[in-house]
Write a structure and sequence with these properties.
Radius of gyration: 18 Å
Largest sheet: 4 strands, antiparallel
Number of helices: 9
Strand order of the largest sheet: 3-2-1-4
Structural class: alpha+beta
Strand content: 5-15%
Shape: elongated
Helix content: 40-55%
Number of strands: 6
Order of helices and strands: EEEHEEEHHHHHHHH
Distance between the termini: 47 Å
């Protein structure tokens, strides 16, 4: 497995095709070093190549660690698991209704809606960490009732978004400060859905 150090997040992240793999997976240096019997140097200026059997990832959910064997399971799980929006709501502090709207848009334009939803939420999480003002807006939205959100979204026709038109709008009108410090390319397809969420939050904050 290959890892590269990311300055903004101060850690080594898993690479796939020379890009940070999404959802982002951070290397647990301490546990991995234990598996390697302390015979390894974590050089921030080089891409690390570590044998799979020694790799341990940081578990975002509980701050514990997961051995890399868990990373090989998603291809099997994604066909049998259903999305628990209540769990995602608590994890990301985003109203379930908005998560369902986001998933609906993604699933209509993706071959694997569940995988892409988790990838998009991982990027959204990084955006909220990088932008304190946006983070406060997301927290404010979290306390809206479903009825309030539904009324506002229905009024502004957010159930019938055209992804092609949204992509053009993003490329022309949206500034880069939201993503300048993130290990992503704003032209990547998933960023359409990230910006859909950003636009959604900005609109709801203004209207409320």
């Amino acid at each position: 497995m290959k890892f590269k150090y990311h300055k903004s997040y101060r850690g080594f992240y898993l690479l796939e095709d020379n890009k940070f793999k999404r959802p982002y997976q951070k290397l647990d240096q301490e546990k991995t070093l234990e598996n390697l019997d302390g015979e390894f140097e974590f050089n921030k200026h080089e891409i690390l190549d570590i044998d799979d059997k020694f790799v341990v990832f940081v578990d975002k959910d509980g701050g514990n660690t997961d051995k890399n064997k868990n990373v090989t399971k998603p291809k099997v799980q994604k066909k049998t698991e259903t999305i628990d929006f209540e769990v995602l709501e608590l994890k990301y502090k985003i109203p379930k209704l908005l998560l369902e709207k986001l998933y609906g848009l993604i699933s209509e334009n993706s071959k694997d809606g569940q995988r892409d939803l988790l990838s998009v939420l991982s990027v959204v999480e990084n955006v909220t960490h990088a932008d304190g003002l946006f983070s406060s807006k997301v927290k404010k939205i979290f306390y809206y009732s479903d009825k309030e959100l539904n009324d506002l979204l229905s009024r502004y026709n957010f159930d019938n978004i055209n992804v092609a038109n949204l992509k053009k709008d993003i490329e022309v009108n949206y500034p880069s400060q939201y993503i300048s410090s993130l290990p992503i390319d704003y032209k990547e397809y998933e960023m359409i859905f990230v910006f859909y969420f950003i636009i959604l939050i900005e609109l709801l904050t203004i209207l409320k």
